[in-house]
Every structure is written in C-alpha cells, then in structure tokens.
Structure prediction request, 272 residues.
Amino acid sequence: MASPSLQNTTVLVTGAAGGLGKAIAKAYLDAGANVAICDIHEARLAEARAQFEGTGRVLALKTDITSEEAVEHLVAETVSRFGRLDILVNNAGMMDGFDPVGDLSKANWDKVLGVNLTGSFLCMKHTVRAFQTQQSKTPGSEDSDLAKFKGLVIQIGSNASTMGHQSGAAYTASKHGVAALVKNTAGFYGDEGVYAVALMLGVMQTNIAEGVGALGGFNQAAFAKSSSVTSSGENVTDTADVARYCVFLADPRIAAGVNGSSIAFNKNWPRQ
Prediction:
C-alpha cells in the first residue's frame, strides 16, 4: 500500500530510465509520490514509461540535461503536470575511462563534466527557482521545519567526491564539484526552506559505465593503479537500499537536519 506521507509530493529523478535512477523512481512511486523521470535514451525511457504509467502518477520526458533550455522545459512540465515540485534527485551521470590527467583528452573532459557537473548544476538551478516560487506544503504548521520546507535536492555523489584515486581525473573532478554545489546551495537557501544533501555512493551494479565506449574505451593500466581494484562483491551497495534512503530523506524534518551534508552510503568501502 502507498504510504500517505508522500501522497501529493512530487519528485523529479534524472537519468531514471534504468539502473539506480529507475530504482529511486520506483521507490517514490511505491511510497505514493508523483514522479517525473527523464533520460537521454528514448528506447529505455519508453520501457520505463510503460512500466510506470499504470500508476497515473508518472511523467516521462526525454531530456538532455546539458541543455539549459531542455532542463527548464523539464521542470516547467513537471510543475504544470503535478502542480508543484518538492524533491529533485540529481542522479544522471556518466563514468569516465579512468584516464589520469596526463592521458585525458579535453573532449572527454568536456563530456564527463558536461553531464555530471554542468547537468547537475542546471537541474539544481531550475529546481531551486521552482522551489522558491511555491509555498510550503504546510505553511500553518506549528512545526517550524514543516512550515518552512519548500524543497529538497538529493545529489548523487560518489566516493570520488572526497577521494582522489577512485576513478579518472574527469569523473573525480565532476564528483568533487557536485559536492561543492550541494554545500553552496545548502548555505544560500537553507533559510528559505530549500535544502540540499549529497549521497556519497560506493561500488554499485548500475548502468553508469555504459558511456565509457563513447569516450574511446577504458584505461586498464590506470585502473590497475586505482584503489578501486580493492573492491569485491561484498562491498557492492544495492540500488534498492539507496532508493529507500532517498524516500527516508523526503521527510521535511530529516531534510532540514541533513541540509548541507555529504552522507557516505558505501558499506564502509574503502574501510575507514
């Protein structure tokens, strides 16, 4: 049964036609929320749309998140369809080929930063603007966190957001960058009831590595030097567990409490 706590709550999940994003979208739908999903892959998006459309609470739009015009349209369509927007899950991203800076082409740097950092910035920008134009869902509440809450950004980060030897230079820089975006956004907008939090994920079985082919392949020699080779099956984080945590963060009191945080969700790998 759908949880009444997320009924009339609207969530936008980027990169949600497969992998982690799809798991997050399903978890929010199962909790009773309205969910907008976007992806760049039309065929995969059509499959997700067909899977979820029976709920009557899903909007699926093909979107290139590196285009500001496309992102602005996505946010506007979400608000038009559901009346408001409460949560953004900035999930869309691509892996790099593990190239260190000396091997990295500018073209591949631009591709990875464009999706992971610029795309996250654009989605955050237009979602925060939407948050600012709407009232809190419970403006008269005696609970100050409920009375103030206008929206939450959940940014999917990585071990590479805080560590330098988990991936190539481009992915590492992009994931450090999104962590900084979260801190800056939390600091500037928290007093308005707009919150931001990053989830620092470890190894997962997702489709994020599919884009490596578009970068010209995988740098095996660099990967062999990376600390990522220490991972094993027992270190893999389940996408469903991350999705459940995203639903947990939808509570306005929790969102207020973790504002600006970078939360490790990685099965303590690498071990602290």
